[in-house]
Structure formats: structure tokens, C-alpha cells
């Protein structure tokens, strides 16, 4: 496929969205000469920033609804990854693609692909930070809210492309033979998105797509557990393992605070003594990124140096304010209970935890002991909070709320916190209902922290 092949096509982009994929598809295809219809169930008022960013293009908009005729008459339909394959609109379409499938069919650059339930955004961002030193044109895209179509025309031949991939994005590639990464990574597998899958194994099967197109000359990195070893047995690329503290079970592992890689017959140290974001899980995710960079040919000394000044990523254990010696951390991308537990365990200081929201049909009982260790808990309204309240009541743990706004929860947490303590937004649930998305939730927390009176 060549870009010019889209000239004069009738294209329908389903799901204009707020995070990049729909916008990038519209712009890319319109600039190639396609006749583009963008359709979204949301209103022009909600999508105003997106529509404004496309005002230089001749786009037909169908908003507040989808019309069957726009799919039946289209030569090509671009779907948002969250749209289920069972959609009747897709059934009425001829050719269906995503922004990612278009990109992969047009790009011949080396691909480094990362998936997993949690941790993948930190891994890809740290990897990008490392590789930019030798490859200034290295680009990062995918589920991290940057569509790779947005930078396709800027790529030079040797520029590596790092892709963060969700289970939905991978599911859309199943059977397509489009993804052939030089290095693939599966950070972990946890219960997630069970409101969107028939079973946990269906979710796992979508994750497998990340390595299924690899060959013997390539590399794959898996967690050293039973599931990770089952992935490796199914993978043609050379498999490496991380995560076990038992020497010999993993090539990439933590020993005390040191991140080590048994590589080419010797043990190398890949992490600096200190990182800018707290917690074991952040350190382990940086080690995964370091291992990928080493497999891609970077020197251990450069990797350590680059990670020393890696700032972390927005919305993931992000320090957003210090006020009267109280630290405010935004961990809004914690949308499952295990991620909330990891956020809590990243701190030794007394915690004021703001959590809760909408449930994804997940089980919160396993993190009950972690919740009991928190000094004060402030709950946001939602179905996940109902589950959390039941657990807290059984254990006799007191809590505040649930609150109908983040402003209320934040105000109380801030008034009760004392010097040396931490106010942490780590919801362990989705943002639907109260917020547009988790980034809206995190940005509001930032604004509230920034508005605190100067001390």
C-alpha cells in the first residue's frame, strides 16, 4: 500500500475522539486526497477542540449519531479501537482499518512494541528517553495518545518507532500479519477491561498478537511467571525474562536496589542508584526499558546516564505540587485495583488516598490489606467505590465520602494532611461518569494542587 492509493477514496472515520487516533486518521487521509466523513456520537460542543484542529481541511462531520449510509457507501472505514467488532455499522462496511493498521502497512522502520495491563506507558516513555540520545528521530506512539500516523511522513529510514499497544489495538490486528516488531514486550497480565471481554482468556489472546508475527532474528521480553513462559513457548523470537529475583530464572532482574541484566555472558548494571519517581514498580519498569534498549544495541553506560534524568510520565505517580511540606501526586492512570495498590506501596510516608470511580467488573478484595495500611481514604462516587466501601466496612477501616466531585475530596484531604505526608490520587477505577477520561481527572487534580495558597 502507498499513501497515494487513498486519493479520491470515500472514507468514514468512526470515532473522532479526543486523544489523537481519529484526528490523525482524518488529517492523514484528507491530505492524501480522500473524501473524509468523520462521525462521532458526541456533540460538536464536546468535540470543539478536535474540530478546530482540523479547520484547514475539507471534512464532512456527522455528529450526535452514526448513519448506516456512511458505512455502506464508504470505500474504507477507520474504526476507533474501542468500537467492538460486533458493531452493525462495521458489519455493513466493506474494508475496515484502524490508524495503527494503516501505519503498519505503510511503515518499514524498526518497531519496538510494548503491551501489558499496567506499566507499559512508563516502559515506552523511558525507552524513548533512552533512545533519543542516539536516534533523535525516534518516535513514540500508539495507546499513549499519539497516533503513529501523525509522524509517519517525518520518519527517516533508520528511526526506531516505539509503540504502546492496548489489547483492543492488538485485537484489531489479529490475523492481519502486519506487526513484526524487532523487540516485543509483555509487561504483565492482570484482570482489566473485563466489562469489554467475554472472558479473561479472550483478553489474554489479544495480548498474544504482539509477538505472533516475530521471527527468529528478533527478541521478546516476558515476565518470568507461568503465563510468561507459556507466551515464550508460543513465540518464534528469542525469549528473555524479567522480574524474578532468583538468579537464573530471569536475565533481567532486581537485586536489592540494583537493576541487572545477564547479557552476552556477563552481568551488567543498567539502572542508576536513584530515579526521579518513587517506588519499586517504577524502578522495575525502567529496568524493562533498559533491557529493551540494551537488546537494541545501546551501551549500559548510556542507558544508566539517560535514566538518571528521566522525569517519569504525566499522570503516573506524577509529583504535581509541594505545599507546606505536603506532597501531591497524580496517579490518575491507575484504573485497576492492582495499579492502585502499586501506587500506595510506592510511599513510606503517611498517605491521604483519593480513590474510586466506575467499576470495570474487577475484584478489589485482594488489595484489602493494602487499603488498610493507608492513613485516610477519600472516595469518589461510583460503582467501584461501592465495592471498596463494602471491603472497608468489613475490615473496620474508616473512610470519607463518597464525594460527588473531586473538588470536595481534594479539599478535605488537603485540610487533613500534615507536613511530611502525601496526598495521592490513585483511583483504581475508570473515570466515566464524573470525567471525560482519566486525563481530565488528572488535569483537574493538577489544577486543584496548583491553586493551593502559597506557603
Explain what the structure shows.
The structure is a single chain. By secondary structure, the chain is an alpha/beta fold. It folds into 3 domains: 9-97, 3-Layer(aba) Sandwich (Rossmann fold), CATH 3.40.50.720; 101-308, 3-Layer(aba) Sandwich (UDP-N-acetylmuramoyl-L-alanine:D-glutamate ligase), CATH 3.40.1190; 318-450, Protein-Tyrosine Phosphatase, Chain A, CATH 3.90.190.20. Helix content is 33%, strand content 20%. The protein is built from 16 helices and 20 strands. It has helices spanning 21-31, 48-53, 68-72, 88-91, 99-106, 120-131, 167-173, 200-212, 226-233, 280-295, 300-308, 337-344, 368-372, 383-395, 406-416, 438-450; strands at 10-14, 35-40, 60-63, 76-79, 96-97, 111-115, 139-142, 161-164, 183-186, 219-223, 238-242, 252-255, 258-263, 266-269, 318-323, 326-330, 351-355, 376-380, 400-403, 422-425. The strands form 4 sheets. A 6-stranded parallel beta sheet has the order 7-8-6-9-10-11, with helices on both faces. It has a 6-stranded mixed beta sheet with strand order 15-16-20-17-18-19, with helices on both faces. A 5-stranded parallel beta sheet has the order 3-2-1-4-5. α7 (167-173) crosses α8 (200-212). It is globular, with a radius of gyration of 23 Å. The termini are far apart. The model has no long low-confidence stretch (mean pLDDT 92).
Give the beta-strand count: 20
| Number of helical stretches of at least 4 residues | 16
Shape: globular
- Give me the CATH architecture of the largest domain, please: 3-Layer(aba) Sandwich
Structural class: alpha/beta
Text of the CATH class of the largest domain:
Alpha Beta
| Biggest sheet architecture | 6 strands, parallel
Question: How many independent structural domains?
Answer: 3
Distance between the termini: 59 Å
CATH topology of the largest domain: UDP-N-acetylmuramoyl-L-alanine:D-glutamate ligase
Strand content: 15-25%
Amino acid at each position: 500500500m502507498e499513501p497515494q492509493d487513498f486519493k479520491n477514496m470515500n472514507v468514514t472515520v468512526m470515532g473522532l475522539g479526543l486523544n489523537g487516533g481519529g484526528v490523525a486518521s482524518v488529517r492523514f487521509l484528507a491530505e492524501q486526497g480522500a473524501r473524509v466523513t468523520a462521525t462521532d456520537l458526541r456533540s460538536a460542543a464536546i468535540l470543539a477542540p478536535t474540530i478546530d484542529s482540523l479547520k484547514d481541511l475539507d471534512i464532512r462531520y456527522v455528529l450526535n449519531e452514526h448513519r448506516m449510509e456512511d458505512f455502506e457507501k464508504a470505500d474504507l472505514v477507520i474504526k476507533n479501537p474501542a468500537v467492538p467488532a460486533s458493531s452493525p455499522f462495521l458489519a455493513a462496511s466493506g474494508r475496515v482499518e484502524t490508524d495503527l493498521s494503516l501505519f503498519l502497512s505503510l511503515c518499514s522502520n524498526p518497531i519496538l512494541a510494548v503491551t501489558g495491563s499496567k506499566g507499559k506507558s512508563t516502559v515506552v516513555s523511558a525507552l524513548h528517553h533512552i533512545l533519543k540520545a542516539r536516534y533523535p528521530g525516534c518516535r513514540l506512539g500508539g495507546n499513549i495518545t499519539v497516533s503513529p500516523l501523525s509522524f509517519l511522513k517525518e520518519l527517516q529510514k533508520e528511526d526506531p518507532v516505539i509503540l504502546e499497544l492496548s489489547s483492543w489495538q492488538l485485537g484489531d490486528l489479529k490475523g492481519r500479519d502486519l506487526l513484526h516488531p524487532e523487540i516485543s514486550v509483555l509487561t504483565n497480565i492482570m484482570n482489566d477491561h473485563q466489562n469489554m471481554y467475554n472472558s479473561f482468556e479472550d483478553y489474554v489472546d489479544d495480548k498474544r498478537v504482539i509477538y505472533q508475527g516475530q521471527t527468529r532474528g528478533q527478541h521478546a521480553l516476558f515476565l518470568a511467571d507461568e503465563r510468561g513462559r507459556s507466551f515464550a513457548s508460543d513465540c518464534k523470537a528469542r525469549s528473555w525474562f524479567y522480574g524474578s529475583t532468583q538468579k537464573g530464572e530471569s536475565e533481567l532482574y532486581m537485586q536489592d536496589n540494583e537493576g541487572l541484566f545477564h547479557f552476552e555472558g556477563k552481568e551488567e548494571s543498567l539502572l542508576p542508584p536513584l530515579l526521579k519517581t518513587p517506588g519499586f514498580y517504577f524502578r522495575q519498569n525502567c529496568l524493562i526499558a533498559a533491557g529493551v534498549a540494551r537488546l537494541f544495541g545501546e551501551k549500559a553506560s548510556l542507558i544508566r546516564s539517560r535514566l538518571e534524568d528521566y522525569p517519569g510520565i504525566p499522570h503516573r505517580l506524577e509529583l504535581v505540587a509541594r505545599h507546606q511540606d505536603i506532597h501531591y501526586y497524580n496517579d490518575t492512570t491507575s484504573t485497576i485495583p492492582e495499579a492502585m495498590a502499586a501506587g500506595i506501596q510506592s510511599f513510606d510516608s503517611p498517605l491521604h488516598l483519593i480513590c474510586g470511580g466506575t467499576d470495570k467488573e474487577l475484584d478489589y478484595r485482594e488489595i484489602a490489606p493494602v487499603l488498610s495500611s493507608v492513613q485516610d481514604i477519600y472516595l469518589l462516587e461510583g460503582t467501584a467505590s461501592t465495592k471498596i466501601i463494602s471491603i472497608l466496612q468489613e475490615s473496620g477501616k474508616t473512610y470519607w465520602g463518597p464525594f460527588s466531585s473531586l473538588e470536595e475530596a481534594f479539599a478535605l484531604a488537603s485540610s487533613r494532611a500534615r507536613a511530611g505526608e502525601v496526598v495521592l490520587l490513585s483511583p483504581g477505577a475508570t473515570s466515566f461518569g464524573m470525567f471525560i477520561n482519566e486525563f481530565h481527572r488528572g488535569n483537574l487534580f493538577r489544577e486543584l494542587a496548583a491553586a493551593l495558597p502559597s506557603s
